[in-house]
Amino acid sequence: MTAESSRRTPSLLASLARVRPTGDGPMLALTVADQRVGKVTPQAAALLRKAGPVFAFGTAGIEMARGLETPEDRTDAVSSSLRRLAADGDLPAPRYERYPVVTRWGADELMRVDRSYVGLLGALAFGLHVNGYVPTPAGPEMWIGRRADDRLVEPGKLDNLVGGGQPAGLSLAANLVKEAAEEAGIDAATAGAARPAGLICYEAPHPLGLRRDVLFTFDLALAPDFTPVNTDGEVAEFTRHPVADVLDRLRRQPEAFKFNVPAVIVDFCLRHGVLDPDSEPDYAELATTLRQPLT
Amino acid sequence: MTAESSRRTPSLLASLARVRPTGDGPMLALTVADQRVGKVTPQAAALLRKAGPVFAFGTAGIEMARGLETPEDRTDAVSSSLRRLAADGDLPAPRYERYPVVTRWGADELMRVDRSYVGLLGALAFGLHVNGYVPTPAGPEMWIGRRADDRLVEPGKLDNLVGGGQPAGLSLAANLVKEAAEEAGIDAATAGAARPAGLICYEAPHPLGLRRDVLFTFDLALAPDFTPVNTDGEVAEFTRHPVADVLDRLRRQPEAFKFNVPAVIVDFCLRHGVLDPDSEPDYAELATTLRQPLT
């Protein structure tokens, strides 16, 4: 094992620093119909106390008001109380995109909440990221996007070919086709060749509370003459790089990437044999950091 | 999501039941030179109390005697006290294969211990498993071994093409070449084409204490006319199956497989897009079960 020589370059673990829990203060469980759906930070709890009777504070945590019996009732009640907080300036504006609130992937929705407030509740948020790459005899070359300078989240940062949150009421496959067309001008037939490749999941700080993200990863092998074209203004440019160069950039300048993109790329490199457990001293910690317990 | 229809067949999660912690009683930390290397069950602690002054029992846990200053000193002292317990019938016989005792993969060895007693100490144990498969237009076909009926561990059970523990003083790449030759008659050039594909890690019950296994997984794409041939008597036969058939067997008869082999196969299926997050309701739990925290 050449741990000594590898230590001379910055560790890839540093590139995952933004997808680690910070553990700032005791969390409160948020339950809906006796099912635990969220982890609420002290700061987020202080905001939720202003949201009125829709949330009941008890010794065991925060409970959604029991009078709200259907998912639709809960969605409406939470939506109107959080919209009022936003109007008062206590919360950012809604994004008018609804995310499912569930105990686990595949479970029935207990309600929906605007994308802006998922982190406030510390609810699970699902998404998908697509590694677009060209296989070559020397190894994969990855397509990397640079986010437009006017984007709300992490403008100018490096990104995967395609990535997006998973709204309620859509399959991952359908969302992938939609995002691939909007973000990279990829036709449905090409996008349909993307292959599910597992997931990464992590807790991370969120401006309002706590991120608990589950990102389904997909691999999309592309022809050498394929060129992505952004159609929705979210990407400033796409460039293609040998994966070793991408890893080198990750080691030396992790902050050039959107916060969770290093995790998606490191996962790709683990799965494709780009990283070698005999020579990468942090191999095991990289692997476990990419898949944190969904507690 | 077709959760309803998938629920009709047994869940793949059941096939991972043997790589989950059972949580039977409070664990004691085992430290060597102030570094935490093991998790000792109450049952294992009772055995270690008979091992003499090499282990000091305190309120914070179990500490290796401080007089033992070098890894070699510790290895010798532990070896002779555990050999004495084995002679008294309190422990199984040593296997005369030494495993490294470390805080993490890639860290300096604090001592070595016979393979038979890794679970007694609740130390990390490293290994490698190779998914041998033939890519076909209809998807991968996997080579599955059946363990010989006279094997010490899990005789007669279904296994991966190649798998083995990782002894001290050998690289994973070298161990893979050695095990591939012994277990499946694979020449070094063919074995060298195996590609690292990440790892699975889990806690699981162990007859003496606790397993804490880190298994590095490798994928080896094989030609359609390749046939594995066992050379060391450890495998009764090899057969090749479409991966869908292997998954079907995993769902319906998980106990036909060696305890950790379902995890290796499910990991392969997640990475290769054989399982689909839109149709597999336990997809996220499968993924997190395969990579448990190394605590």
Q: Pick out the low-confidence regions of chain A.
A: 1-6
Largest sheet of chain A: 7 strands, mixed
CATH-defined superfamily of the largest domain in chain A: Nucleoside Triphosphate Pyrophosphohydrolase
CATH class of the largest domain in chain A: Alpha Beta
Helix content of chain A: 25-40%
Dominant shape of chain A: globular
Domain count of chain A: 2
The fraction of residues assigned to DSSP E strands of chain A is 25-35%
CATH topology of the largest domain in chain A: Nucleoside Triphosphate Pyrophosphohydrolase
Radius of gyration of chain A: 20 Å
In N-to-C order, the SSE pattern of chain A is HEEHEEHEEHEEEEHHEEEHHH
Written account of the structure:
The structure is a homodimer of 295-residue chains. By secondary structure, chain A is an alpha+beta fold. The first copy, chain A, has two domains: 28-123, 2-Layer Sandwich (Transcription Regulator spoIIAA); 125-289, Nucleoside Triphosphate Pyrophosphohydrolase. In chain A, 26% of the residues lie in helices and 28% in strands. In chain A, strands 7, 8, 9, 10, 11, 12 and 13 form a seven-stranded mixed sheet that branches. In chain A, helix 7 packs across helix 8 (261-271). Chain A is globular. Residues 1-6 of chain A have low confidence and may be disordered. Chains A and B meet through strand 11, strand 12 and helix 9 of A and strand 11, strand 12 and helix 9 of B.
